[in-house]
Amino acid sequence: MKRIPKDSESPQKTGVLGGITVVELSEFIAGPYCSKLLADMGAEVIKLESPGQGDITRRRPPFKGDSPGPDNSGLFFFLNANKLSITLDPFHPAGKKAFFELIAKADLLIEDRSPVIMEEAELDFKHLAKVNPRLVVTSITPFGQTGPYRNYRAYPLNTFQSGGEGYLTPGASPYPQRPPLKWANFSGDYFCGVSAAGAALLALFHQRATGKGQHVDISKQEALLDMNTIDLLRWPNRGELANRATRGYKFAGVMPCKNGYVDFGFHRWPDEWQAILSVIGTPGWWGEDENLKDRAYCEEHGNELKQRLADSFKVHTKEEIYQKAIAKHAAIAPCLQIDEVADSPQMNSRGFFAEIDHPNWGKFKFPTAPYRFSDAPWRLRHLAPSLGEHNEEIYKQRLSMSTQELTNLKEKGAI
Fold first, then answer.
1. Pairing of strands 362-367, 353-358
2. What is the crossing angle of helices 187-210 and 30-39, to 10°?
3. At what angle do helices 318-327 and 271-279 cross, to 10 degrees?
4. Residue 121 and residue 189: Cα distance in Å, rounded?
5. What angle is formed at CA 171 by the lines to CA 170 and CA 174, rounded to 5 degrees?
6. DSSP summary character for residue 262
């Protein structure tokens, strides 16, 4: 989807979503990450934050210099750079009018409130579509807009486990009695944000073709189930029920090496299996044993093979294994620490990190975008906003409010 730029514009200035206006009524990870992906492609994102409080991530670490503060959170900065911030409570009677005026000019609303709350406040899609028939509303909730759990509250831990991934993690564990785990930090919510962004883009494409808006319903539980498609299909197709003890490759996965770990699997058998063995020097135990070229035999003797592979990997560094493996088109990757990601030759050669010169934080590396558009490269248009930084610009210039009207809204606690 590419907007035709004005004569005075270029893709480098506008991005592929230049001209798209997004209103974000969400906080924490999933909704803000969804709108961040759109903002990084050039969309104008107007972030609505609660008066006096702001997004909860403003109070989440890591903090610059370990000093908590609404403008010191690295998490908030990552999720909200390239956005505008205004304070507004759309559920306040005095704030609803301003919200409707924003919606009337918007292409997309990203929201994460409970369906019943939106309906009772008449801020749901049915009512917003009357204000703007072209509006796309993307709702990101724990269990979707319909069904018996539609109004249940849930934290990221709950939604992650409800998607089934916790039941399967840690995969291929030799200790099946271990309790279920979640992925590090809020990986599940980031995954939901990506799913929401993809669906929102499709709806915007439809809007551009037809002039009609629609409601995009993102259930976090359903989105997270997508991570387990293969395991879910094993039951109806093969009668197998995966769990933490049986999930994963019988003789692959994460393996220790000389300076850390590598992770590998087999998508093309036996080519990748033979490539892995050649990478570690075709140890003597491989020999001429034809049985080891049979996958069923290898799976049956998986524990023994895992131990032998681990012994062989321990004499090689993960970089040695990785470089040799990719030369032979084997699916293997090193498990990197954070500093190793930041110093990765591949990441830096692709320009994934940009140097940010922050007026208060100084210079630091910042991740850009997980894609490269030759005609519209990623750029930092502005830093993550302070709370309500763009109130004057949006309310006075966009909505033509007077100073007195703005003061009245502040006194009423609506902004």
1. antiparallel
2. 50
3. 140
4. 26
5. 85
6. E
Task: Report CA Rg, the chain.
Answer: 25
Q: Is the dihedral of CA 291, 293, 299, 305 positive or negative?
A: positive
How far is it, in rounded angstroms, from Cα 61 to Cα 81? 16
Q: Which two tokens stand for residue 359?
A: 């007026």
- The total number of residues shown for the chain amounts to 415
Are the C-beta atoms of residues 45 and 355 closer than 8 Å to each other? no
Distance between CA 262 and CA 312 in Å, rounded? 12
For 256, the enclosing helix (H) or strand (E) is strand 253-257
In 3-state terms, the chain is what percent helix, strand and coil (to 5)? 40, 15, 45
Beta-strand relationship, 108-111 and 332-335? unpaired
Task: Give the domain ranges of the chain.
Answer: 11-226+363-411, 253-335
Sign of CA dihedral 66, 69, 75, 77: negative
CATH class belonging to 11-226+363-411: alpha beta
Q: Which residues are within 8 A (CB) of 80 and not within 5 positions of it... i.e. 6 or more apart? A: 32, 36, 47, 55, 57, 384, 385
- Predicted confidence pLDDT, tens digits, the chain (415 residues): 333 333 344 444 578 999 999 999 999 999 999 999 999 999 999 999 999 999 999 999 999 999 999 999 999 999 999 999 999 999 999 999 999 999 999 999 999 999 999 999 999 999 999 999 999 999 999 999 999 999 999 999 999 999 988 888 887 655 667 788 888 889 999 999 999 999 999 999 999 999 999 999 999 999 999 888 888 888 888 888 877 777 767 788 888 999 999 988 877 788 888 888 888 776 666 656 778 788 888 888 888 888 888 888 889 999 999 998 889 888 888 999 999 999 998 899 989 999 999 999 999 999 999 888 888 889 999 999 999 999 999 999 999 999 999 999 999 999 9
399 closest CA partner among 198, 192, 98, 117: 98
Q: Residue 302: CB partners within 8 Å, gap ≥ 6?
A: 249, 250, 251
- Contact between 220 and 31 (Cβ < 8 Å): no
User: Between 3.30.1070.10, 3.40.50.2300, 3.30.1540.10, 3.30.70.2120, what CATH number should domain 253-335 receive?
Assistant: 3.30.1540.10
377 and 12 Cβ atoms separated by less than 8 Å: yes
Measure the CA–CA gap between 260 and 318, rounded to whole angstroms: 7
State pTM to two decimals: 0.91
